[in-house]
């Protein structure tokens, strides 16, 4: 038993006073003459014994009465050790898209919010955070309206991130009990290898589960090769059942332009192909009706008018291979010999290719440096008879690159940097049996650029990155068969395409992406990105003939956005939420260390309340004191 005011118990020593008074009380008896005392001796003896018993009963009753009153004022109680410590309560509520799953007509998020409002004490201070929002030291009534209108988030914190964030919100005091409550459906992707919660915290897990765990999602779209009049739009879906067909609709803006049904395979995936007109701008939206999650039932994409990439080739020999690589449907190719080149032509170009030049004049070097500074892409393939000093004068100022000695021994390309951005999505896997090109002579080189293609022995055949690509050997037929190699197509095509980052069919929210917009900005001009009811200004870098936009934190909503300059729409761009939440696969939370699992929010708060309960006994001592007072009255009246 413990006492709220133990200092009052010192008053128990006062009980000694009535004991002393009782033991040392002096009574004087008056002698009264009587004619015959002998007959009264027996009566006096019995009267004294009765009186002594009554006094002892009264003494003990009064001592117990005073002791009961003193103990009552000291307020005795019993409680668990944790009940006496100050509590810090932290609540994490998962508001990710997977919480759109329904249970008895309510989404998991709606049900969790209602249970929190119902079970949290209105006067209890706690901290609260979701995947994107944080509230410290608040009461439930302070955020009730916010909770009832809480939107879903495309972000999902892992258990490690939840524990780390809670640690920053908890105080550093060791004298408090720290309770972390995690309310989620606990998708498998919430846990990482070796994840473990902080053992100094009491972590309570409340897993929420939907009745229906099947969810159909539109995963991606892509263009396939079609005829001159029609293109094929491929759509991939997942999560369906093999025994059913799911209708899927294709819209251009608000107009329905096609509709079909998706037939799922045994593994739950499906592919649907729509025929769409070629060379037509489309602001597309794909839509399905599914009883699972709602966020992945729509998919946005757009097809803009194709913008040709401007390529200038300055050549010292026949360069017909460039006409086959840079065709008129995607590129605007101009070829010049060095004597024919008007340097002003380079203004506004995206790519400059120096092919088989014996030397690079100083004036051209100056123009090319300015061209690179303005974001242009420069490709250099030397000649067997190159004046290396003129090449090195230019290259030394560009990524510290320089040509060195000539190697006359024949060599073969033996290594491809598959992870280089130039070959992104070119190879499905690393190729074992590949027809690699050969060279008869090449130059040893030094560069800060990464190697893209390497020769046997470790020398580089192609260096490149960030708009500069340099070959170490001449590409002429008498020196190399690279022009006949399958590698030449993706290599030159992607080098040119990297110069102008056109918007893709769609982009994914939360992932950093960059696009180039052909526009000339004034000193105070900026590009804005907007859709109905939502507008923002992205990070932008202006070049003489284009603007590079970078998207990272914005936008936060999916949809089709217009890129505008002074109110004029230049191009459209689409964003979709990542599909990581679409697969409803859950963790076995019972096996997570340093955690306690509860079936529901209500049972959790019942447990926390029981752990904090204090049983007080002062009322019982007051009742005991009243009973003792009554006993004293009875003794006084009936004991003689």
Separation of termini? 39 Å
Name of the CATH homologous superfamily of the largest domain? Class I glutamine amidotransferase (GATase) domain
Name the average pLDDT.
Answer: 84
CATH-derived topology of the largest domain: Rossmann fold
Shape: elongated
Structure description:
With 640 residues, this protein is α+β, with helices and mostly antiparallel strands. The chain has four domains: 2-79 and 625-638, no CATH class; 87-212 and 592-613, von Willebrand factor, type A domain (Rossmann fold, 3-Layer(aba) Sandwich); 309-498, 3-Layer(aba) Sandwich (Rossmann fold); 507-576, Immunoglobulin-like, CATH 2.60.40. The protein has eleven helices and 37 strands. The strands form nine sheets. The protein has a nine-stranded mixed β-sheet with strand order 18-17-19-20-27-26-25-22-23, with helices on both faces. It has a six-stranded mixed β-sheet with strand order 7-6-3-8-9-36, sandwiched between helices. A five-stranded mixed β-sheet has the order 28-35-34-30-31, with no helix packed on it. A hairpin with a 4-residue loop joins strand 32 and strand 33 (547-551). Helix 2 runs antiparallel to helix 11 and helix 3 runs antiparallel to helix 4 (140-148). The longest helix has 34 residues, at 41-74. The radius of gyration is 43 Å and the shape is elongated.
What can be said about this structure in brief?
The chain is α+β, with helices and mostly antiparallel strands. It contains 11 helices and 37 strands.
């Amino acid at each position: 038993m413990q006492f709220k005011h133990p200092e009052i118990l010192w008053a128990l020593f006062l009980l000694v006073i009535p004991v002393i008074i009782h033991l040392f009380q002096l009574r004087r008896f008056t002698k009264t003459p009587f004619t015959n005392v002998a007959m009264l001796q027996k009566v006096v003896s019995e009267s004294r014994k009765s009186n002594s018993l009554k006094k002892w009963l009264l003494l003990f009753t009064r001592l117990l009465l005073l002791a009961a009153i003193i103990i009552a004022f000291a307020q005795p109680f019993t409680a668990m050790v944790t009940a006496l410590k100050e509590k810090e309560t932290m609540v994490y509520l998962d508001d990710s898209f997977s919480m759109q799953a329904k249970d008895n007509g309510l989404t998991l998020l709606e049900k969790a919010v209602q249970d929190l409002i119902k079970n949290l004490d209105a006067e209890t201070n706690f901290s609260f955070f979701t995947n994107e929002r944080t509230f410290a030291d608040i009461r439930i009534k302070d955020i009730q309206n916010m909770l009832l209108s809480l939107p879903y988030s495309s972000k999902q914190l892992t258990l490690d991130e939840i524990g780390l964030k809670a640690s920053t919100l908890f105080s550093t005091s060791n004298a408090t009990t720290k309770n972390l409550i995690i309310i989620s459906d606990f998708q498998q992707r919430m846990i990482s290898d070796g994840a473990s919660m902080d053992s100094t915290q009491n972590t309570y897990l409340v897993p929420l589960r939907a009745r229906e765990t099947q969810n159909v999602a539109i995963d991606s779209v892509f263009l396939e090769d079609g005829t001159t009049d029609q293109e094929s739009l491929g759509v991939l879906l997942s999560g369906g059942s093999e025994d059913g067909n799911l209708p899927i609709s294709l819209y251009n803006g608000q107009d329905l332009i096609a509709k079909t049904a998706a037939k799922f395979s045994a593994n739950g995936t499906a592919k649907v192909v729509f025929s769409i007109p070629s060379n037509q701008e489309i602001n597309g939206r794909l839509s399905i009706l599914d009883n699972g999650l709602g966020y992945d039932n729509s998919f946005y994409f757009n097809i803009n008018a194709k913008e040709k990439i401007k390529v200038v080739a300055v050549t010292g020999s026949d360069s017909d291979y460039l006409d086959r690589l840079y065709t008129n449907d995607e590129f605007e190719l101009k070829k010049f010999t060095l004597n024919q080149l008007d340097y002003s032509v380079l203004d506004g170009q995206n790519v400059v290719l120096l092919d088989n030049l014996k030397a690079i004049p100083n004036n051209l070097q100056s123009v090319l440096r300015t061209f690179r500074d303005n974001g242009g892409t420069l490709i250099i393939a030397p000649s067997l008879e190159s004046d290396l000093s003129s090449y090195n004068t230019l290259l030394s100022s560009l990524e510290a690159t320089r040509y060195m000695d000539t190697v006359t021994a024949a060599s073969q390309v033996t290594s491809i940097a598959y992870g280089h951005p130039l070959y992104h999505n070119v190879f499905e896997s690393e190729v074992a049996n590949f027809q690699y090109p050969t060279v008869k002579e090449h130059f040893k080189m030094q560069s800060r650029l990464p190697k893209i293609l390497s020769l046997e022995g470790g020398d580089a055949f192609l260096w490149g990155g960030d708009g500069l690509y340099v070959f170490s050997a001449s590409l002429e037929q008498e020196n190399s068969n690279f022009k006949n190699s399958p590698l030449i197509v993706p290599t030159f095509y992607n080098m040119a395409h990297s110069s102008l980052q056109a918007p893709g069919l769609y982009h994914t929210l939360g992932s950093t992406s960059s696009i180039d917009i052909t526009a000339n900005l004034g000193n105070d001009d900026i590009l804005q990105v907007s859709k109905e009811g939502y507008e923002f200004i992205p990070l932008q870098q202006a070049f003489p003939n284009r603007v590079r936009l970078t998207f990272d934190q914005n936008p936060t909503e999916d949809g089709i956005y217009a890129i505008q300059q002074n109110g004029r729409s230049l191009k459209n761009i689409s964003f979709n939420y990542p599909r990581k939440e679409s697969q409803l696969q859950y963790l076995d939370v019972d096996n997570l260390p340093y955690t306690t699992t509860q079936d529901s929010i209500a049972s959790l708060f019942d447990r926390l309340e029981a752990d904090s309960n204090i049983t007080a006994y002062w009322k019982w001592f007051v009742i005991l004191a009243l009973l003792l007072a009554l006993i004293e009255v009875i003794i006084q009246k009936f004991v003689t």
